[in-house]
Design a protein that fits this description.
By secondary structure, the protein is an all-alpha fold. The chain contains 3 helices and no strands. The chain has one domain.
Length: 44
């Protein structure tokens, strides 16, 4: 939602009714997962 739709973390937090810190943590985890997948793809 942050990257694709341009929502601010605060807005996502309100929509999902979860703390803003959780939204930022989930975003960071998603970026790590994407980075790992891209690095793995390069090794193949």
């Amino acid at each position: 939602l942050h990257l694709l739709a341009g929502y601010k973390f605060r807005e996502i937090s309100t929509m999902l009714d979860i703390p803003q810190s959780t939204v930022r943590w989930m975003y960071g985890e998603a970026l790590k997962t994407l980075k790992d997948a891209l690095e793995k793809e390069e090794q193949i």
